[in-house]
Design goal:
The chain is mainly α. Helix content is 47%, strand content 0%.
Length: 58
């Protein structure tokens, strides 16, 4: 996760013990894999509330 955060421009803190987000820097991909589909579903519903294909006109 630290590689992703560094790629988007968030620098790694020097002392992780004092940082309130210290657990975020140590998250691994297998830990995210279980919740990732739900995060993607929520993001799609936020930005496309009618779904990926929109309304169907009858």
């Amino acid at each position: 996760m630290s590689d992703v955060l560094n790629a988007i421009g968030i620098a790694t803190p020097e002392n992780l013990d004092d940082n309130i987000f210290r657990d975020l820097w140590t998250v691994t991909s297998p830990q995210i894999a279980d919740i990732l589909p739900y995060i993607l579903m929520v993001l799609i519903l936020i930005f496309r509330p009618y779904g990926l294909f929109g309304n169907r006109d009858a």
